[in-house]
User: Fold this.
Amino acid sequence: MNEMSTNELYAEPPVSQPPNGRFRRLLWGSTLIALLFLILAGLTLWLDPFGWAVLERLSGQYDATATAVPPNSVLYVGVNLLNSNVDDMKALRDTFAAPLADADVNLDDAQQEFTNMLATDYGLTFADDVQPWLGQYLGFALLDVTLGEFDSTPDASWLLLAETRNGSAADAFLAKVAAAWAENNDATPVSESYNGVTITAFVAERPGAGLALAQSGRMMLAATNSDVLKQAIDAQKGESLADKAEYQTAVADLPDARMVTMYMDGAQLTDMVQEMNASMSGLLMTSATSAFPTDWLRGTAVSLTFIDAGLQIDSINAYDPDALPAAQRALLSNAYATAPVSLSLYPENTFFYVGVQGLGAIWETYRDLLVAQMGDPEAYAEAMALFARDFGVNPDTDFFPYLGQEIAVGLMPGDSGVFAEEMDLPLEALMLLGTNNETALAASLEAFTAKVSDPDSGLGEVNRLDSNGLILYEFATPFSESAQFMYGLGRGYFYLGTSAAGAQALQFGGGPSLADNAGYRAAVAALPTDMVPTMYLDLRSMMSVIRSSAAASGMDMAGFDQTAAVLYPLRTIAAAARVSETAAQQTMILFIER
Assistant:
């Protein structure tokens, strides 16, 4: 066998020859063309000369139908079908279908009824007449809402919008709808051209009973009359709701992946409240609505988003800080700055909680509203003096000014108090209000207690309990053997609840609290990290407590069990909030097991 040389074992690879000049020029030319194409495509997407809004569509920062909604609309609801994940919607539907069917609510029947209505009344099917042209966005708007008298039906003009991706198929759909409407209502269509758009309208004598149809650009439009359609066409070519600063501010921080967006115009909502007050002059609701002026509100936006945990609901109130009363501005500037301390006080088995810290100006805010509503500071002062005469405390000077540092309400299992003893519900309710002057508030509570428990003029009996640094008072009327409510003071809080047991269960010693609850911690972990937790509901635990009590009392549980079965997939609900200089935002998550 011949031995191979080292050079043969480790032979050098052949050296490739450089391309000739023609091939090199072709390679460079192709690369340059590809690079120019990419730059041109990027600029086209960025500058959007054709109005496609591809980048905004993909990021969720665009709403095609909002660009055809008149800017003076009171209400707008938009749906992004691209974010309407079919699998998510099917899973949600299937989750509730069986328990709803047991409760005589059949989703399949409801869907079939709608399908039959389309086929019978209009000769339409979704697959053949809608799906071929339907684009990414749907929208609905209300304009010119008139409330009228309190016992009359509100009047409003409506507008329905749908983005189209096949103009001829959309025209065929509109032609079918027009022909069916004419036949069903024995009506004759009237056609007119407006800014190059053909409008087909059916005029009705009764307001809101007519119909107008048109396709304008890549938008199918239907409305209560042709005037509304003309406003929509003008909005497409001029200023629309999407261009309105108030709308942009309200929706700016909503999730990009949202499926549904709802917007309400703040100025028009204020006008509607004032109109309602005028039409209901002399009724009790007048004082309730006028006590909360909304002229500072610029717009309210709400969105619905599918997430892995279930459904997320976001709401934003955009406001004008310069229009806010000073007290309200101070209130909002401090609210939701830090998590409430009471999260670590309520016991671990608390199944409902609402709390917020930083409300030092809340009484001053509400006091100004009350005085403005009464229109006479002297009448307000007289009302407070009369209350002091009857109950020993002036709320304006001796009670509310000492409260408002933190407010929290909790609901937990319990076997004492008005719920458990009078209603056979093993529930305990407790409200906490932080105090900035415990000594002064203690004097006020003593004066109140002496007045309401006076043997000659009092309202009932008061039992005082000193417990764990707290002074608690249980009040009972002569007509009941159990306490009607509890109030007390200590450790920086004022307490109001159904019995002393609720306050005695608070974890001042650092025991297991709601903040340690595994369900609460999991729920809060799903909320935005830059928000402050404000609400938690363990629906299953609450329903379980109520059911055990109801079953033990011998009640027929069939109706309750049906309701509980429908609600069972909805495990918990949690919410958080934050406030900026121009908006207050809340995020709520409905945790649903699918």
The chain has 21 helices and 20 strands. Residues 350 and 412 are 4 Å apart (CA to CA). The mean pLDDT is 82.
